[in-house]
Specification:
Length: about 325
């Protein structure tokens, strides 16, 4: 009998979609569809895209979890990082068109008069518009998430099919995609541009790989998945890594997380590891914001990442 999939990958598992109006731009980088969030996106004319007049010494490379760059939540996060840090955020499709969500995703929301703003950042230009229309629930063991349509090729996938999909996105395939994106960043913003990296789930592994390869020095990973201890061990002197993890995570169980911390202690990297109670894998990008514990954890992880980049990038 086939084992059940983790909710992160199971097409029958509902996922919450945060309400909001992303303001970034989709462009093609060497044939790779890429979402770019710019701190002054609303000030750009209709014939500009955020890289048309680059005057930035720093950028953030945002690598998504399996849902990809068309998950509204990821786009909203990218926008807010750009706003908070006043630098561009580059979010490439590292799955080469095979992310979990299709481009034409149309999220649905529960009907309610109450609005929970999707972010605590009241300076966010869209603060009042970005909210999940549902009351806050305290001490809830389960979250009432909202279903969205999955791409046809993903439906009815069993564990074996997911493993086949995952195999198509291992380092031998993904590293060259990211190499092209990093090359474009340096060509566009200058060879001396400082690149910070943030990764969620699948993307977290590749942030660590880029750090180990000396491509970026400052990284943040949220509930990272599928990485190896050899990859962690390659982090060296001058690198800065922050980990934000879930209490319950069968992709990153506490045993692997603690082993990761042990390996980091043997490196010369500067690191931190934070675990949030009452959370499960995916909380910082797909969490149900009506659950107070999840909401506070998501906000804390976001603020922690902003602070990490401000201090070290």
């Amino acid at each position: 009998m086939t084992e059940s999939l983790h909710p992160c990958c199971d097409p029958s598992s509902p996922s919450p979609i945060w309400e909001g109006n992303p303001t970034g731009t989709i462009i093609s980088i060497c044939g790779i569809e890429t979402y770019i969030a710019h701190p002054n996106a609303r000030d750009l004319s209709s014939d500009q895209h955020p890289s048309s007049n680059p005057k930035h010494e720093k950028v953030i490379l945002f690598l998504t979890e399996g849902h990809g760059i068309y998950l509204p939540n990821a786009q909203l996060l990218a926008d807010s990082f750009a706003h908070q840090l006043s630098i561009p955020v580059i979010m490439p499709d590292q799955f080469a068109g095979q992310a979990r969500l299709p481009k034409d995703i149309v999220p649905s929301f529960p009907s309610s008069h109450a609005t929970v703003p999707w972010t605590e950042d009241k300076d966010d230009p869209n603060y009042e518009l970005r909210g999940l229309k549902a009351p806050v629930k305290e001490n809830s063991e389960t979250s009432d998430a909202y279903r969205f349509e999955k791409p046809p090729w993903w439906k009815k996938q069993a564990e074996g099919e997911f493993e086949k999909w995952k195999a198509r996105h291992e380092p031998i395939v993904t590293d060259p995609i990211l190499e092209k994106v990093v090359g474009w960043i340096r060509e566009t913003y200058g060879e001396d541009v400082k690149i910070g990296g943030i990764g969620y789930c699948f993307g977290g592994r590749y942030i660590m790989r880029l750090m180990g390869a000396g491509v970026i020095d400052v990284g943040v990973v949220n509930h990272p998945s599928f990485y190896t201890m050899d990859e962690v061990a390659k982090l060296g002197n001058g690198t800065r890594l922050a980990i934000f993890a879930a209490e319950k995570d069968d992709i990153l169980p506490k045993e692997k997380r603690r082993e990761t911390e042990d390996v980091l202690e043997g490196t010369e990297t500067t690191w931190r590891s934070t675990v949030y109670s009452g959370t499960e894998h995916g909380f910082s990008v797909r969490g149900d914001l009506t659950v107070k514990e999840v909401r506070l954890a998501k906000e804390s992880a976001f603020r922690g990442a902003v602070q990490w980049f401000r201090e070290w990038l």
